[in-house]
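TOPIC: backbone geometry
CONTENTS: sequence, structure tokens:
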Amino acid sequence: MSGLCRMVNVLDGASKDSMNVLKTKGIDTIFSTVNISDGVYDNADGILAFGSDVHSLGLKWCARLGLSTLYSGVMSETGADNRMFVRKAERAGFENIHKLFTKLAGVGAAPEFIQIDIDIYSELSGITLSFEEQTRMINAVINATKAVMPECKIILATKESTDNEKAKKWFNRYQVSGGKPIEIISLIYQLSADSFYDLSCNMSDLSRRFEAEILVDISAQANVASADIGLEDLDSAISIVPLDKGFGTVYSDEALDTATLVA
């Protein structure tokens, strides 16, 4: 269990000093959201400084890509015209992410992981995308990332952490539609004894079926100390995912004020 990756989601950003404190608590990776908008690479000083601080402390960085603003901007130009929207969204995703990561890589501040939240593609307001269209947009983000950072690991995150049928159906369709390879599946979860068995079954099935490592994201749950499932139980479940595919956990920074990580 000591080999599991331990990420902390710094929701409101973090200073270098506060990240160093997190490191002393057993955290090895900082998880933060990078909001992608058109031209983000031209105003990236804060992002570059953050990435540089993470790496200067000997930590890794997982950048969750916030794509809502970018896609909303594209939609304001194209309206509900699917063909035009997808074409422009692909181009905007690739160009902005490629240029941003080129800047980050140039100063040694590139992330080791990037996360794409798959639910955004079915939740975009004002447009309904086919699965093939969703896959094209995801592929554009992955292609941009890998073109600059071939070793960067791709994480696809889903809210379907306890519904195995829905989760495996999505990833099956993603593969069939020509989805690019990914390394990690993140399951967004709230600790609960009622659903813990379902989470465990989903982790095992997805890891074997799609040959991906499994990350469990409990960062939306600040008060983990009061949960009826402990962090030790979660560690144990992740550590026995088949084929050593249990990757780790994402905590909230608030949770680490009250919870102790298991060594």
User: Anything to note?
Assistant: The radius of gyration is 18 Å. The mean pLDDT is 94. DSSP finds ten helices and eight strands in the chain.
